[in-house]
Design goal:
The complex is a heterodimer of chains A (363) and B (341). Chain A is 46% helix and 18% strand. Chain A has 363 residues and is α/β, with parallel strands linked by helices. In chain A, helix 3 (77-88) runs parallel beside helix 4 (104-116) and helix 7 packs across helix 8. Chain A is elongated, with a radius of gyration of 25 Å. Chain A starts with 5 loop residues before the first helix and ends in a 7-residue tail after the last strand. Helix content of chain B is 75%, strand content 1%. Chain B has helices at residues 2-21, 24-30, 32-48, 55-80, 88-102, 113-136, 142-160, 171-178, 186-204, 206-223, 228-254, 266-276, 287-307, 311-329, 334-337; strands spanning 180-181, 184-185. Chain B has a two-stranded antiparallel sheet. Classes of the chains: A alpha/beta (363), B mainly alpha (341). At the A-B interface, helix 2, strand 7, helix 7, helix 8 and helix 9 of A face helix 4, helix 11, helix 13 and helix 14 of B.
């Protein structure tokens, strides 16, 4: 009976008001925390390139107070299917997933999962030729960004040709057989070979992007071809370093020309010392910053996906061929977090674009 | 009284069985198959490619086999006991990055080779000790313990990675890989010395003899009052130490600290041990047999490169040759080799 007393009626009313207040505050708080959460997936935390990407991406996320998390695939797409699958499981409307699917095979599956959770997704490097952000889950797949592997192979090939005076044998250390950057770089290299008839390809082997494997293969080549090898084309810097290590054992470092790709600092140091001829520098920090800013802009509604052109949704980022002539300039570049803010990149998201990805190059 | 005499009879029977299990000498003769396979492969590649038997190529072959030989020594003792050590790559990677951070390098201001060796090899000893303790005292299968340790060490290596590979600037460390004595680097001599020590441990010490015993019949060894746990721990410590030594030598060889430097050491080592005739189920084999296995793998890889097999086919040929080598070399042991039933 006590429940019906005026005192208890007051108490109930008071409780109702308090509850209403709490709900309103919570709603306001929820509206405020609608800032997109960025999930950034890299190949490995043990690579300079991965760390550089995280640096740029984190700086942009910090500039807008977005939640930022890093995931590493260890170059296994299956791992990302599981990790991002868990993130997407309960729906993820305000999430932005930015990742390298590690292989073409996983791109569509990851994009589809993001679309099911209504998250935004951006991809790097690996994407099958038949699908594009504008025709596959186009409301969720924001963009695909890459670096032009053909250009890397071609320009490094040209640098090798020049350094050996257009004459001599060359061997090629390739990455993993079914990998777009590996295939593109080799295609570009073959183009350079065709333009340099005196440079003859003696052999090519898959070293799976592995430093030690590259070293072992190079030892075998030195035994097989001896002084006929004038140059070694490596599809990335890690393998180039392995080749240089094998050359050092024979006192040939600096005498046999070596090219790489990616522009990691130890390879740049070798370009400076003359033990490597060239490498293609890709700016990981810029890649991380641009992709994060793009994803954030779409998730926040600052950019309307429907208004973007194909070239704005699938493009190459700029890269720089590094030789002895410009190595000091590249080495002097020190990434500064203040350069990677959302506001600065928002001024022109495509400032560092090197143009659209041509049809047929993503196979 | 009757009961006691029964027990005595059983224990004397078992003692003689332990004697058989630990009869190391008999196993040496059984492994001619692997050596034969190695000789056949070398003869084949010599006939097929003019460069295979050249001095330069044989040097390259020996250089490439040196670090895998060190790794396989450690794993052989573990496998003799019927256990497995999956942490090899993680421990080697950790030692690789630790070494690079303590010696003169392009990232940190440290340049202390002695300290680098103590910390790198010490971490290997410690992780090996933890593996051994967890396996022997907590009775957790070695597969699980060392799998976990693989990830722990790998994670620690990643954590210590200073966002770019430290270049090694220590001339003494680099000279181990670069200075040649009679055409071979210091790494090869380290591997040879370790092989001799390992053979001594295997055949002349309790650790070696009891490893065969534990692999053959652990329960029996325990019944005979032997201190099985101690041997198990010692063997895992040894494997951890050798893995970390591989990491240190890889640093010298690559000239940089790579937090994935040890990758690619584990499965070739296990395959090499099995190819050589060391059983996954334990009790049979030995370091020399495992080293023959390492050489078989190196010869196949190098030989295929020398005769110019299509790189896309290399792995297929490698795999097929391994199967043929194992079948030819261990036909008489095929039922014992079958660990997955």
């Amino acid at each position: 009976m006590d429940n019906h007393s005026p005192r208890s009626a007051f108490r109930t009313a008071g409780q109702a008001i308090a509850l209403a207040l709490i709900l309103t505050t919570a709603q306001a708080a929820m509206a405020e925390t609608k800032t997109p959460a960025i999930y950034y997936g890299i190949g490995s935390e043990s690579s300079e390139y991965g760390n550089a990407q995280v640096f740029g991406a984190k700086a942009v996320a910090a500039s807008v107070n977005a939640k930022f998390s890093v995931l590493a695939s260890d170059y296994q797409g299956q791992k990302f299917l599981q990790d991002f699958g868990a993130i997407f499981a309960a729906g993820c409307k305000d999430c932005v997933a930015i990742l390298d699917p590690a292989s073409n095979a996983f791109t569509k599956a990851l994009v589809d999962r993001a679309a099911q959770a209504d998250a935004k997704i951006l991809t790097f490097w690996n994407s099958p030729d038949g699908i594009h952000p504008w025709d596959t889950d186009s409301d969720n797949w924001v963009a695909h960004l890459s670096f032009d592997g053909v250009e890397s192979g071609y320009k490094n090939g040209q640098a090798l040709c020049k350094s050996i005076g257009g004459q001599g044998g060359v061997v090629a250390l390739m990455g993993i057989a079914d990998n777009p950057p590996a295939k593109q770089r080799f295609a570009g290299f073959k183009h350079a070979l065709a333009e340099c008839p005196g440079m003859k390809l003696l052999d090519s082997q898959y070293a799976d992007w592995d430093q030690t494997k590259a070293q072992t293969i190079t030892r075998g080549w030195l035994a097989r071809y001896g002084a006929s090898i004038k140059a070694i084309f490596a599809e990335d810097d890690g393998m180039a370093l392995g080749a240089v290590a094998a050359l050092r054992e024979k006192g040939l470092a600096g005498k046999v020309q070596v090219s790489g790709s990616n522009g990691q600092s130890d390879a740049l140091a070798l370009v400076k010392s003359g033990e490597m001829t060239s490498t293609m520098y890709v700016d990981g920090a810029m890649q991380g910053a641009v992709s994060t800013a793009l994803g954030y802009a779409v998730a926040r509604g600052d950019l309307d996906l429907k208004k973007l052109t194909h070239a704005q949704r699938e493009f190459y980022l700029q890269q720089t061929l590094v030789t002895k002539d410009n190595v000091d300039q590249v080495l002097a570049r020190k990434p500064n977090a203040a350069d990677y803010t959302y506001e600065k990149i928002k001024a022109n998201f495509w400032q560092t674009s090197a143009g659209p990805v041509p049809t047929g190059s993503l196979k | 009284m009757q009961r006691q005499s029964d027990r005595l009879d059983i224990s004397s029977e078992r003692s003689s069985y332990i004697g058989q299990v630990m009869d190391v000498k008999n196993y040496r003769v059984r492994d001619w198959g692997a050596i034969l396979a190695l000789i056949v492969l070398m003869a084949f590649f010599t006939a097929a490619g003019s460069n295979f038997a050249s001095l330069n190529n044989l040097q390259a072959l020996v250089e490439s086999s040196a670090i895998p030989v060190i790794a396989v020594i450690g794993i052989t003792f573990v496998m003799l006991q019927g256990s497995i050590d999956l942490s090899v790559e993680g421990v080697a990677s950790l030692a690789c990055i630790v070494t690079s951070l303590f010696v003169a390098n392009s990232v940190t201001s440290s340049h202390n080779l002695g300290l680098a060796l103590v910390v790198a090899l010490g971490s290997g000893l410690l992780l090996g000790l933890i593996n051994g303790l967890m396996y022997s005292k907590l009775k957790i299968p070695s597969l699980i313990v060392t799998l976990g340790m693989w990830f722990v060490a790998r994670g620690a290596a990643t954590y210590l990675f200073p966002s770019r590979q430290p270049q090694i600037l220590d001339p003494m460390l680099m000279s181990v890989a670069l200075d040649k004595h009679f055409g071979l680097s210091g790494i090869v001599y380290v591997a040879i010395v370790l092989l001799i020590i390992a053979y001594f441990i295997q055949s002349k010490t309790r650790i070696g003899r009891l490893s065969y015993g534990i692999g053959g019949d652990e329960a029996l060894c325990r019944l005979a009052g032997l201190r099985v746990d101690r041997i198990k721990i010692a063997v895992f410590v040894m494997s951890g130490f050798l893995s970390s030594l591989c990491g240190v030598l890889l640093t010298a060889q690559l000239g940089v600290g790579n937090p994935r430097g040890g990758d690619g050491l584990l499965f070739p080592s296990i395959s090499a041990a099995v190819i050589g005739g060391t059983l996954l189920s334990g009790g049979k084999g030995g370091v020399f047999q495992s080293v023959v296995g390492v050489l078989i793998l190196s010869v196949i890889r190098n030989g295929l490169q020398q005769i110019g097999v299509d790189p896309l086919l290399t792995q297929v040929v490698e795999g097929a040759t391994i199967v043929v080598a194992v079948v030819a070399g261990s036909w008489h042991m095929r039922t014992k080799l079958r660990v997955a039933k």
